[in-house]
Every structure is written in C-alpha cells, then in structure tokens.
What does this fold into?
Amino acid sequence: MQVKTQIDELQNYLTDASNLPGGHAEKLFIPETSAEIAEILKEANAQKIPVTVSGARTGTVGGAIPFGGFVISLEKFNKIKEINKVTLRAIVQSGVALIDFQKAVEAENLFYPPDPTEWSCQLGGTVATTASGARTFKYGATRKFVDRLEIDMATGEILNLKRGAQFSENGLIEVKTGQGNLIKAKLPTYRQPDVRKNTSGYFSGEKVDAIDLFIGSEGTLGIITEIELRVLPKPASFFSGIIFFENEADLLNFVWEARDISFNTRNNQIQNPKSKIQNQIDASLIEYFDERSLKFISEKFPEVPGAARGAIFFEQETTAATEDELLEQWNELLEKHHADLERSWFTTTDEDRERLRAFRHALPVSVNERIVKYKQKKVGTDMAVPDDKFLSFLKFYQEKLSESGLEYVIFGHIGDNHLHANMIPKSPAEAEKARYLYGRFIAQSIMLGGTISAEHGIGKHKSKYLYVQYGERFLNEMAELKKAFDPHGILGRGNMFDAKFLS
Ligand SMILES: Cc1cc2nc3c(=O)[nH]c(=O)nc-3n(C[C@H](O)[C@H](O)[C@H](O)COP(=O)(O)OP(=O)(O)OC[C@H]3O[C@@H](n4cnc5c(N)ncnc54)[C@H](O)[C@@H]3O)c2cc1C
It folds into this structure.
C-alpha cells in the first residue's frame, strides 16, 4: 500500500469536476486489499479522523474533495474478476473505470446500460452516486444494475449485502457484519419526490432493501470494494439520430409523442411478454439541446444547421427483422412533427453512433473548457420535476435565464423531465448573479414537488440546498442513520448534510 503525505503528491486528490476550492488532507492511502482499508479505517475510527473516499473524481458536487483527515483512493481496486455470459452477472472491484468495463462487456457481446457521459469514472463512484445519464430513460439508473456489494465499514468491519436478502420492516433495518455484529438502523421518514430520477439523500420508502441504502450514499456509509452487476445481452443494433427542429413547439410535441409511445410499448411488453412488441417504437434515450447548446457545440461540429432552434438525440434498439419497420415508424413521427429531416443525422452503425455520442459529450466538455477560460466556476442545475410540471419549469428556466443576460445552455435528459441549465459567468459579478438564479431554480423545483438533484448527488456543494428540500427534521434522521453504520461520522464528512447534524 502506498501512503503519501507531500502536498504535491496529494494535489490531484484535493479537487474534482466541481472545482470546489479549499480541499486539503493530511494523508493519502492507496490500498490494494480490503484488509488494508479495514486497518486504515480502524485507526481513523479510533482517533475520529475524517476519511474521504476518492474514485476518479469526476463527480460534480465535491463529494470526493477532502476537508482534512485521510483520503483513501480506490485506484488499485481495478480488477474485473468475472463476466458471466450465462448468469448475466459481472463481479468487479470498485476502482474499475467504467470505460474499461464497457469495453470488456462489449467484447463478450453483452451490454451495460448506465452511461453517465463521463466514461473515466470508476464503477464504485457510479454506485456511490447511483449515476445515470441518457440511457436511464429506458434502463434506469445504476441502482437497478447492482446485485451485491462488499463494503468496508467505518469500524473496520466488512458488510456483504445481496439484493433481496434484507428488507426494512416498520422503518427499521437490520444487517449483520462479517464479524457477526448486528447493526440496527432507523430509516429516514421522508417521501421521495414523484420524479423519474432522484439522488437527493438516502434511499427511503416503505420496504427498503438494505443494499439500496448504500447505493447513492456518496461515501458516507461505507467504502464499496467489490460490486456484482447485472449485464444484458447486447442489442443486435441501434438506430440513432440527432434531429434538428426549426420550431420549439414541434420539438416538444415530438418528444411527448415519442415518450408516450415508448412507455406504452414497455407497459405492453410487461403485460404481454410474448407479443411482437419489439416492432414498436421504444426509445432507449431522448436527449435535448436548446438553440444555445447547438451554437456552442457548432464550434466543434460546424455541420450543425444554422436555422435549428433545438435538437433531439434519440436511440432505438433494432434487429435485422425489426429495423425497416422501426425506421419507417420513426420517420413518420418525425415528419408529423416537422423535423428538418434533410439536415438531421441518422445512423445504424456502431462507428457513426460513437460520433453521435461524441456530439452529446462535447457539450458539457465545451462548457467546462469555456469556464476554465473565464477563470470562473460553472453554475449548473440538476433538478427534475414531476411530468405535469415539466413545461412550466422549462419556461421558468428560459425566462429567468434570458432576462439575466448571462451566457448559458439548456440541455439533457428531457425524456426524464430532467434538464441541465448551465450558466457560464464571465466575471465574479456574473457568478454572483448565476448563484442567485440557481437558488431561485432550486426553490422553484421544490415548490413544484421536484428534486434538487436527479443524478449528480448532493456532495458538499448542495448540502445547504438539501436542507431546503428536506428541512432540519429529515436531515437529523439522515444523520441518525449514518451514525448507526459510522458511529463517529468519519466517512464522507460534509457530504449530503453538514457535520453539525452528527453531533
Ligand atoms: C463531463 C461530465 C459529465 C457528467 N455527466 C453525468 C451524467 O450524465 N449523469 C451522471 O449521473 N453523472 C454525470 N457526471 C458525474 C458523475 O457523477 C461521475 O462521473 C461519477 O458517477 C462519479 O464517479 P467517480 O469515480 O469519478 O467518483 P468520485 O467523483 O471520485 O466520487 C463521487 C462520490 O462517490 C464517493 N465514492 C467514490 N468511490 C467510492 C467507493 N468505492 N465507495 C464509496 N464511496 C465512493 C466519493 O466519496 C464521492 O462522494 C458527469 C461528470 C462529468 C465530468
């Protein structure tokens, strides 16, 4: 195990994609075994030293940024132990990079849908944040693919949790550690907002599977060392397109209809699994780019048509038997909603599909580059609202942002009512304006019954807003739950809620 204490050796571990300043730590550990992690944790627990878990630090909310104490990096936990084509399960160490896993799975003709756009992240990081992304529209977030977790707890004990093995009863959950200790914890009593994606706070509900508490717990309940993931057979092929529209109303009507047909197809499939439903539209992703996003991205992709007022990126699974029929159905839908078919881009090959995905990835990357140029911090939203509130929330974004005079783009997961408004301030005065607007968007999303974080998590960056969403009582309940697993509150301190709730 490597142990580092020099400031220049620690530097890379003091920041993440949030660019939150002020990170500092005393020691960095790069362990190679779960037993080594347990030893570090026993020492930290005895001395009440904060411990921050570090994945690939691509998180956008400062969850991996330490403010004192130890950092434990999982970078040496990088082995893919097994990919089983029969059971459709994979066993991996938590530090495996998502891109390496995706490649290994594809080589076996299998498919792992969670795709948070940034492929350098580690699988452990994606589980700790239950990362999602474009394909969540059809397949769900990372949570849905996690079947088993091995966890090093703050006390140095080991927890092995299998999906379906332990459920909460009457708001209480019990789990047994590998050392034989029974841990009893009371679950928070808040109701999850009625949205399609949510990563705000610990998982809750009437009957909670113990494993779900740790998925999305942002390094606060334990250190994930090994993961068993569900994988799927690789779809035979995909039909994908980036569709340009000259009118926003047409674009939105197209989205609602494509979405409704997809939901219907899926419902029919559940009710009637043997029917030939694969011949009907069932989008695996529906992504949105507003006009400003297109202008922004055209610096890297000059072929974007100048008249476009917005675009949609969609993907549909196909087979040789269904391809013609599905292409026909999509074509009819696009014509009906006046898409600019001549200038839109379509593909059925893997190679061109990668180019479409690169187009989607280019936007957040270009925004980040622009921010670095202005020497400011991006202010980006991650809220989602219930279905019937989406249009009013989009309008609110558009009105407030256009009045503000700030540079901005609105893009993202429109299929899940979840758009990112990225504000790009050029000066400290503009940054203040952007932060003020961010607060208004938070308030509006809460007022509409939405969530302040649909996929990026809370980290340190948004803990004060989680206080606004849930209030003091529920943050106290979250802190109580944490203390059941981490009595001195050493893990991921400051993530989700302020450390003062632990005292
Ligand atoms: C350009 C860009 C686009 C992105 N797009 C999306 C998107 O579309 N959807 C989306 O969901 N996310 C997106 N993200 C952010 C996404 O959350 C991260 O990419 C990823 O989930 C975090 O993985 P990581 O290994 O980098 O974790 P880190 O950033 O290192 O850590 C994230 C959190 O998890 C904890 N953690 C890490 N590893 C472990 C572990 N083994 N055990 C316990 N806790 C751990 C950390 O302490 C921290 O709290 C994007 C990021 C970037 C930079």
